[in-house]
Amino acid sequence: MSDSSLFGLTTDPMTVMMSTVVSATLSRTSNTSLTKPVNFTLRHTADLSPNESQSLSCVYWKVKEWVVDGCTLTKTNSSHTVCSCTHLSTFALIMLTHPQKTKAVLELINTVAVSVGMVCLVLSLLTFFLCRRNSRVTKTTRVNLCISLLLAHLLFLLTQSLLHYIKPHQVVCAVLAGVLQFLFLSAFVWMSIEAVLLFISVKNLSRLNQKSMLGWKRLTAVGYGIPLVVVGVSAGVMPGGYGSEKCWLRNDRNLVWSFLGPVCFMLVSNVILFSLIANSLRSSLTRLNSQVSQINQTRIVVFKTVVQFFILGCPWILGFFISSSKILEVLFLFLNSQQGTFIFLIHCILNKEVREQCKKWSRAFCPGKKNS
After folding, report:
1. Taking every annotated instance into account, which residue ranges of this chain make up the domain GAIN-B (predicted)?
2. What is the pTM of this model?
3. Same domain assignment for residues 290 and 142
């Protein structure tokens, strides 16, 4: 198809079409998937220098935009590029006009932001272990939430940093994608468990008896069992859906919904739970005047949990729109990388018990210091 304007470019102004558009189909079948990748050669519309060849991408047309998933660039020279795709579709070759600068800035923002978030997650875990006073909601949920996020962000950072070496090994890339899906789903499950425990606590207006009612073994089985089942079923039903260009779930086979589906379900469930919690607190506040301090304490815990929910859950909604805007992509990376920072701020720095414990430690290390 010599007239590529029939399809149009991506919304990114730095994208340039570097080939004519080609389309491949199989007759007498509607199945576009292939058991083995198909290789095809595209001729450049203009000769490229060696530096420009590094910015090329093999893409295919999906509904109304060019996407990369399922297609890889195998080799290229100044005049031709060989692409490999796992399905048949309408293909083309695009080039970023300023790829190095844009990529370097995004990688720097990503590395710094994720590193700061991981440091805060480590500090949060240390705070939870050192300050052992019981809270209204068992610390099992917050500790495992931090562990899941810490491991997920660490694996994500290592995968993206070593992507050039990992991508040629498709099995390794697919395994890393599955582990990332498991860890991020675990974080959402632990967040949902905390909301359920908070709902039970508010309904009873008493501390949860962790040993007899909701022991850490049961919570751990639920917190890691549910995401393990989701990943296991997804891998069994569609094993070829793991391992995109970024070693994540591939959009071309819609396996990404095995992550987005449970996430959307948990977000909606948490909104319903928080609505019930708010209604329960309002009725308790008018009924129990003798326990105003206890209710106020519960309200603080509810407020922190709701803020945590919006901070950890809502930024993932931006994931639906990052393909259309670099600004949204940067915002998505920043908000999700700073989840550990927000947890440390909410549950540690703004926690009265933690501040009192820090004062005791400061008086112990500095006995001559007077109390302010």
Report:
1. 1-101
2. 0.69
3. yes
Is the domain of 81 the same as that of 128? no
- Tell me: do 262 and 292 sit in the same domain: yes
Residues 85 and 203 grouped into a single domain: no
Quick check: is 306 in a domain?
A: yes
pLDDT per position as a tens digit, 183-234: 999 998 998 888 788 777 777 654 444 444 467 788 888 999 999 999 999 8
| 10-residue stretch averages of pLDDT, the chain, 372 residues long | 56 71 81 78 83 76 80 86 87 74 71 90 87 58 90 90 80 90 92 81 56 68 92 87 81 78 85 78 59 59 69 70 69 82 84 76 66 49
Domain assignment present for 276: yes
Count of Cβ atoms closer than 10 Å to residue 336 Cβ: 22
3-state secondary structure the chain: CCCHHHCCCCCCCCEEECCCCEECCCCCCCCCEEEEEEEEEEECCCCCCHHHHCCEEEEEEECCEEECCCEEEEEECCCEEEEEEEECCEEEEEEECCHHHHHHHHHHHHHHHHHHHHHHHHHHHHHHHHCCCCCCCCHHHHHHHHHHHHHHHHHHHHHHHCHHHHCCCHHHHHHHHHHHHHHHHHHHHHHHHHHHHHHHHHHHCCCCCCCCCCCHHHHHHHHHHHHHHHHHHHHHHCHHHECCCCCCECHHHCCCHHHHHHHHHHHHHHHHHHHHHHHHHHHHHHHCHHHHHHHHHHHHHHHHHHHHHHHHHHHHHHHHCHHHCHHHHHHHHHHHHCHHHHHHHHHHHCCHHHHHHHHHHHHHHCCCCCCC
Tell me the CATH number at 23. 2.60.220.50
Residues 17 and 164 in one domain: no
Would 369 be classed as within a structural domain? no
Instruction: Judge if 62 and 118 occupy the same domain.
Output: no
Same-domain status, 223 and 86: no
Total count of domains within the chain: 2
For 276-296, the pLDDT digits (tens) are: 877 776 666 555 554 555 556
- Per the CB < 8 A criterion, the answer to whether 137 and 208 are in contact is yes
Nearest alpha-carbon partner for 196 in 110, 127, 134, 272: 272
Find the domain containing 109 and state its range.
99-361
